[in-house]
Amino acid sequence: xxxGLFASLRLRQWxxxxxxxxxxxxxxxxxxxxxxxxxxxxxxxxxxSAVYLANDVADAAVDRAHPAKSKRPVASGVLPxxxxxxxxxxxxAAALVGAALIDSGAAWIIFAYLVVHAAYSLGAKHVAVLxxxxxxxxxxxxxxxxxxxxxxxxxxxxxxxxxxxxxxVAAGKRASELVRAGDGGRAVLRDYTPGFxxxxxxxxxxxxxxxxxxxxxxxxGGDGSLAIELSVVPFALALLRYLLLSAHGRTEAPExxxxxxxxxxxxxxxxxxxFAVGIGW
Length: 281
Description:
Blueprint: H1 2-8, H2 22-26, H3 34-63, H4 73-76, H5 81-102, H6 104-122, H7 130-150, H8 156-181, H9 194-220, H10 226-230, H11 232-247, H12 254-260, H13 262-279
């Protein structure tokens, strides 16, 4: 049961919470305000695990019919529902208290994240389009939490980059689920078509690319910072590669794709290097 509980925390998916570092890093204050930012990241790890546990309980019946998800601790019966719910409540409470100790703004963001995902687990995930938007909102709230914890202003273009990229990722997740499970997977998949999800991904990726170009040139301050401007290239490559992988049904678990695809990983490394040089890390 203990092993099942740890598995249900989905530690691999904590990779998403590194987005909390994005705004402070882009603002160049990560080195001076790292205690608050690291604490905010830890808080989001607790909050996200609380959400995963609650969602596993809500999805248990459907997961039992899925070839891979049927092995999840709650669906398989290894982790009792009562234990999962208590653990979810305790993690959510710890996240709220921890966020309040960091910053009141961060606490409200964590509260919003928990409310949105509670609504998602309780039924909103069965409403086409709304489910994708709610999944995408989690990424935006992570970025906002980092900015609040470090007390740095956030560029509108930065938020647009995160929002559009998150939309592409969320739609890609649904597209891969549709490829692998067809309409025999989660109920909401019956309302989607491959063509529609491809359009949403294109909208998200296109919006993210345009917003990133504008944000990059805003960061360069008009002084022609070549490294930041060149970072547009690996960013565009990563987006296009992700769309290709999604078309092949390989983006159901986005956190795994980053490590399993060499091209995507290489694009990410090149982007980090160029961005770091450009802002003078």
